[in-house]
Amino acid sequence: MAKARRRRVKDTWKDKQWYKIVTPKEFGDAEIGTTPARDSSMLLKRTVESSMRELSGDFSKQYIKLFFQIKDVAGETANTDFVGHQVTSDYVRSMIRRGTSRIDAITPVTTQDNKKMKVHVLAITIKRAKSSQQKFIRETMEKIVIEVASQRIFRDLVEDIVTGKLASTIYHEAKKIYPLKRVEIVKTSVIKEKT
Question: Which residues have a Cβ under 8 Å from the Cβ of 93 and sit 6 or more positions away?
């Protein structure tokens, strides 16, 4: 009985074809994995995770996870769209120390080419800040994110986020309110248009 079952399992693998999953152009059309499927249509909407280190070869970017969703399949290649990113939770924990303030701003933004996304910015102060200062920092972070997004097309905004450029812009502005240890964009997600 067990033997027969094993043979049946093997056969389903035989029917499947392997597809190469590649990132969008802005991430260099890089191969981020392969996946088997009996039918290419089964791959659509599947989400694939990769790290910034795998794409850039930069070990210091190991903590940044990128998410891609398969949008179409051409031949044996599955093409993807960027759908968001996240910083690992242990990295976030490592930034937060006793006696500091954690300020979060989760802001919905719209890019110049009308793509919508949610951007979660985290700022850590050097010492504990007053609640009025925290509020002002949060408002500043939100304002900058909305402003920058409205001046960038989606591809450029994503690049500014994953390279740390946007976090750096926010840091330089917000530290004028209160000394900051760090600013990091810890999470983004693309808001899908309802069709």
Answer: none
Which residues are CB-neighbours of 92 under 8 A, at least 6 positions away? 122, 184, 186
Q: Do residues 120 and 187 share a domain?
A: yes
Report the predicted TM-score, pTM, of the whole model to 2 decimal places: 0.87
- Residues 24, 22: Cα–Cα separation, whole Å: 7
Q: How many domains are there within the chain?
A: 2
pLDDT, one tens digit per residue, over 26-74 is 888 999 999 999 888 899 999 999 999 998 888 888 999 999 999 999 9
Q: How far is CA 133 from CA 102, 146, 166, in A?
A: 12, 20, 21
Q: Can you read off the two tokens belonging to residue 58?
A: 């930069």
C-beta separation of 23 from 50 below 8 A:
yes
Burial class (CB in 10 A: 0-12, 13-18, 19+), 35: middle
Q: Tell me how far apart the alpha carbons of residues 144 and 157 are, in angstroms, rounded to a whole number.
A: 12
DSSP letters, 82-128, are: EEEEEE-HHHHHHH--TT--EEEEEEEEE-TT--EEEEEEEEEESSP
User: Cα(87)–Cα(60) distance, rounded to whole angstroms?
Assistant: 12
* Statement to judge: residues 180 and 94 lie in one domain: yes
Containing structural domain, residue 35: 2-87
